[in-house]
Amino acid sequence: MSGRIDQDQKLFETGNFADFIVKCDGREWKLHKAILTSRSEWFRRAICGDFKEARENELVLEEKDPDSVHAMLLWVYTKTCQSFDPSIFANEDLLYGAYAELYKTADFFLQADLKKEVRGLLAAHLMSRAVQMAKLYCKNPPHAGHEVFLSDDVLRGLKLGLEVAYSYDFPELHAVFRQIVEMTSFWVLEDAKFVEILDEVPLFAVDIIKLIPRSSHFLHVPVAVRQGRAMNAQNQPRARVDDNGLAAGGWLGKFGRGVKRACRGFVEVMAEEESV
C-alpha cells in the first residue's frame, strides 16, 4: 500500500485526533470528519446537515452488521480490501455471507465503488472454485469432482451468502452467485446437497431456470441428458426416466425435482404473505 493509505489506515486503527464516533452493536469507531465528509456522500450529508448526529458528533447504527460496518469504514479510509479481516473474508464458511452483508451495507451508505469491488472479489472467488470444479470433474470419475468441491463448509457458506443476497433486490449480486452454476456447465447441480439449497433459496432456483435457455454453457451438457435420458459409454440408457420426463439418476432429474420443491415452497410463502 502507498504511504498515504498506510497513514490513513493508521488513523482509522488508532483513532488519533478523532472528532466523530460511530457505534454499532456494542462496537465503537473513533473517526475523522475531514476524511468521512470528503470521501463519502452519505457521511457528508449526515455530518454537515442539521441533524442530531452532526450536533453530537456521534452516529448510532441500528440493525447493521458490525463486521460489515467495520469493513465499509476501512474502505472509506483506504479504498482497498487488502486489510479486511481474513478470519471472515478468507474463511470459506463465512466469506459468501460476509461479502453479501458488506454489499448490503455499501448500498445503504451509497458506496458504489465498494459495491463494484465486492462483486469483483466475490466473482473472482467463485470463478476459482468453478475452475477447480471443472478440472476435477473432467479428470476424475463424475462424482469425485463435486464431492471434493462442495464440502460442507463451502455449502454452508454459499447457502448463507445466497440467503442474504436474495433477501434484497440486488440483481447484479444475484448474477454473480449464478455464475457458480453456469461456469461449471451446470455440473454442480449433480450434487444433491447443492440442490437442497434450492429449497432454502427458491428465488435462486428460479434464476437458474431462467438461465438455462440462454446459457452457452448448457450446450456442453450432452444432448441426451438435456432430453432427460442419461446414457452410458455404450450409448445405452443408464438412468430411468421418471413420469415427468426427467432422468431419475442424473443431475437434471435431481435438479428438476429440487426446483419443483423449491417453487412449491416459494408459492406457499407468497400465498401466506398475501393472506396476511
From TrEMBL:
UniProt-listed SMART domains: BTB
CDD domains noted in UniProt: BTB_POZ_ZBTB_KLHL-like
Domain BTB span(s) in chain numbering: 18-78
Highest taxon of source: Eukaryota
UniProt name for this protein: BTB domain-containing protein
Pfam families xrefs: BTB (PF00651)
